[in-house]
Specification:
This protein has 2 helices and 4 strands; from the N terminus they run βαββαβ. It is an alpha+beta fold. It has a single domain (about 5-55, about 65-75), classed as Alpha-Beta Plaits (2-Layer Sandwich). The chain has a 4-stranded antiparallel β-sheet, with helices on one face. A hairpin with a 5-residue loop joins strand 2 and strand 3 (about 50-60). The radius of gyration is 13 Å and the shape is elongated.
């Protein structure tokens, strides 16, 4: 089994008051373990003072692992839309 590198764009939910993109980024950083190697998490500007979180993670190329990681991210309070920006085998 190989490895897959994925880059996600995580948008805070604009309908939730007090959502902090930096707090979301810190929570995602804590997801690094033996399955998910969270290599880079950055808060970037979007528009009109809004920010998004860009996440680069490497994981095994196993069935359901990317869906499980997306599920972990979507369970964070204040996370809205999650978009896959890139995916590639290593």
């Amino acid at each position: 089994m190989g490895l897959v590198a994925m880059t996600y764009k995580v948008n805070p939910n604009p309908d939730v008051d007090g959502v902090d993109a930096n707090a979301i980024a810190e929570t995602i950083r804590s997801f690094s373990d033996e399955v998910y190697d969270v290599q880079n998490v950055e808060t970037k500007p979007l528009a009109f003072g809004l920010q998004f979180v860009e996440v680069h993670v490497v994981m095994d190329d196993g069935t359901g692992l990317s869906d499980a990681f997306e599920g972990k991210m979507s369970s964070i309070h204040g996370v809205g839309e999650i978009e896959v920006l890139s995916m590639g085998l290593l």
